[in-house]
Amino acid sequence: MPAQGISRPVTKRARPWRCALFCLGLLLSAALPADTNPGDCPADRIDARVRVRFVPDGDTLILADSRKVRLIGINTPEVGHDGAPNEPGAIAARDQLRRILFGQHNQLALRYDRERKDRYGRLLAHAFLADGRNLTALLLERGAGFHILVPPNDWAHRCYRNRAEAAREVGRGVWGMKAWRPIPSRELDPRTRGYRIVKGRVVRIGDSRTARWINLEGRFALRLPRKDLEHFKGLNIDALLGRKIEVQGWIYARKGELRMHLRHPDQLRLQTPVDTISLNLMPPSAEGGWLGTLGGV
Hints:
By secondary structure, the protein is an alpha+beta fold. It folds into two domains: 34-176, CATH 2.40.50.90; 182-279, CATH 2.40.50.140. Helices cover 18% and strands 27% of the residues. The strands form three sheets. The protein has a five-stranded mixed β-barrel with strand order 1-2-3-6-5. A hairpin with a 2-residue loop joins strand 12 and strand 13.
């Protein structure tokens, strides 16, 4: 893929291929689900207008001025680097994003959140197409990736969560792939790393100086940093003991066990019937609903 654009420049001799690629794009676009609520997750303001030069993966953009933009609210499967294999769905997510931008002449509007850059120096933003559609919401609804929330950037998180849930209900995109099915915590391979969905029964809840801890069956622990506990104020964490839950996030290893940072209730899903009295929470849906109900639009 040339570094100067999302699509390869063509010459007269390449015109038959250009036509073939264009027709293929139309066919692929026709195969995608229609946008049920194209006006959903609308921008409340626009902070910048940019041109995209290159799309390396399904949630990252490189702008014409060489800045990198990480889309807020979505995590797509990783494109392999340095000999590592692509994660299932990675190329599909990347190519879908490229097709969307090609149809918009690579132009986007950006809306920043409370934190503008991540630890890698990438610009963090919500992106919008010329017709007003929210790019993250569109990708989530098409099953290109998973909804994530990294505090303090929680603008529109309820809307994003609902879009991801809609895709999950019908098994669209990553939600229809065996590789991304929830893994029982007891069956986790000690070598497991990266973004995963894990389910299991809570067997212990404890505290340390810097965090609260939720231990699931097997050697798997959820770390809730104390700085993020304000986001869980609507949830009685102790009432999760003995319940089956599902969590999404990045797995890492430390002190002989696998761990995951839990920074917001949007990462947590109940797998057993909800007792709203003991949980001290009014759930957004019935059994199996996500717990997150705070902040956002």
